[in-house]
Design goal:
CATH topology of the largest domain: Alpha/beta knot
Strand order of the largest sheet: 3-2-1-5-4-6
CATH architecture of the largest domain: 3-Layer(aba) Sandwich
Helix content: 40-55%
Number of helices: 10
Number of strands: 6
Largest sheet: 6 strands, parallel
Mean pLDDT: 88
């Protein structure tokens, strides 16, 4: 069995509409060995309805649900975010299968916090939500693409459990957190605007491509600090050159 750490994996539900789906998702997660859940937004879910669908099996997960107002807050401490999407397109980026996702995540879970992010039942995750994600996964279906929220949670968690039992994930280093990455992206955007690489009327278009570039690698915290340091040095050089020329 691979040296995975499911204690480092958390289900994150953004804006769930129905309390029964939250309870069912908690039960599915518990069945597959994942014991933590975050709910973003919608604090008005009927607690009794959540518990009824979770049953006593997932009582521990329901009792421990952490509520956050925004995705920034919910994902800040995670080093790897898996976003689920049924929609494809250039604005969403490349996607992998649940099986491939599991092969990636199981090894990373040894030393890194992993968030499995699911969107609202009616709309799913937006392009803006997906900017936090290093991996995007689509569950293949025949015909109708939409799955019940708890069904999607079950499929993703099942694949993780199978990968944990069958694959050797090897060693995975401690990665930068989402908070550290967002700080790097903000500094990178500021610097690239200052040197004229990004167009001020639509800087996020190229930033989306840079995010995808970096998401294909595993950035360590010290590497994020190096990149931010390079940005600061570029800014210092530009300011110093401007002072000398004036």
């Amino acid at each position: 069995m691979v040296n995975a750490n499911f204690d480092n994996i958390t289900i994150v539900l953004k804006g769930p509409k129905f309390p029964g789906n939250v309870g069912s998702a908690a039960r599915c997660a518990m069945n597959m060995g994942i014991g933590k859940m975050i709910v973003v937004g919608n604090r008005d879910l009927d607690d009794e309805a959540v518990r009824q669908m979770a049953t006593h099996v997932a009582k521990e997960i329901v009792d421990g649900i952490r509520h956050c107002n925004t995705l920034d807050e919910a994902l800040a401490d995670f080093s790897w975010v898996v976003g689920t999407t049924a929609r494809h397109g250039s604005g969403r980026g490349p996607v992998v299968s649940p099986r491939r996702m599991a092969e990636i995540v199981v090894g990373l879970s040894q030393q890194n916090g992993i968030a499995l992010l699911f969107g609202p039942e009616d709309t799913g995750l937006t392009n803006d939500d997906l900017r936090f994600c290093q991996t995007l996964v689509t569950i293949p279906t025949v015909g109708f693409k939409s799955l019940n929220l708890s069904h999607a949670v079950m499929v993703i968690c099942y694949e993780l459990l199978v990968a944990r039992m069958e694959k050797d994930g090897g060693f995975a280093p401690k990665l930068a957190s989402a908070k550290e990455l967002e700080g790097m992206y903000a500094k990178l955007k500021e610097t690239l605007l200052a040197i004229g690489f990004l167009l001020p009327d639509n800087p996020d278009y190229w930033m989306m491509h840079l995010r995808r570039l970096f998401s294909r690698t595993t950035l360590l915290a010290r590497e994020v600090k190096i990149l931010r340091g390079i940005c600061r040095q570029i800014e210092w050089y530009g300011d110093n050159k401007e002072r000398k020329s004036s």
